[in-house]
Design a protein that fits this description.
Elements (H helix, E strand, L loop, with lengths): L4 E2 L6 E2 L6 E2 L6 E2 L1 H5 L14 E2 L4 E2 L11 H19 L9 E6 L2 E7 L4 E7 L2 E2 L13 E2 L2
Length: 144
């Protein structure tokens, strides 16, 4: 039995689950046709042109989100330092450009440059994920 999907914006039906797009404004499942029109008919959200900050997920805001303590941050920093130190023991291998870890409301990043390492601690950070095929048609706009 084949599953049929229906666009919650325009009513179009299709069989391929990979064609489902989710509206970032109202979380409805919409078809690729509606997503190519750049906005959801129901809520007016720009699908291809995400607005900042409304189109981004903000870590740490959801109810019960884990608030990372300073001691946990130190553990994350030490974990990344150890990864970089182990990698430095093998200069014949190409170094990673960055390391990333975290949980809850905190992301810890180690950037690796030719002549230095840079640690970044980001609390209550915001993130947007897009598909590789959308990167060349995507643009950012200020919140309306």
């Amino acid at each position: 039995m084949k599953c049929t999907y229906e666009c919650e914006s325009c009513g179009t039906k299709w069989d391929d689950p990979d064609e489902i797009k989710e509206c970032g404004g109202c979380d409805k499942d919409i078809c690729s046709c509606c997503s190519e029109n750049e906005s959801c008919e129901d809520c007016g959200y720009d699908i291809l042109d995400a607005r900042y900050p409304e189109g981004f997920y903000k870590f740490g805001e959801s109810e019960g989100a884990h608030k990372v303590s300073d001691s946990e941050v130190i553990k994350f920093l030490e974990q990344l330092r150890k990864h970089a130190a182990r990698e430095a023991e093998y200069p014949e291998h190409e170094r990673a450009e960055f390391y990333l870890t975290g949980t809850g409301d905190t992301c810890v990043i180690l950037l690796s440059y030719e002549d230095e390492y840079r640690f970044i601690v980001a609390k209550e950070y915001e993130e947007l994920t897009i598909e590789p095929g959308e990167i060349d048609t995507f643009s950012f706009k200020e919140e309306a």
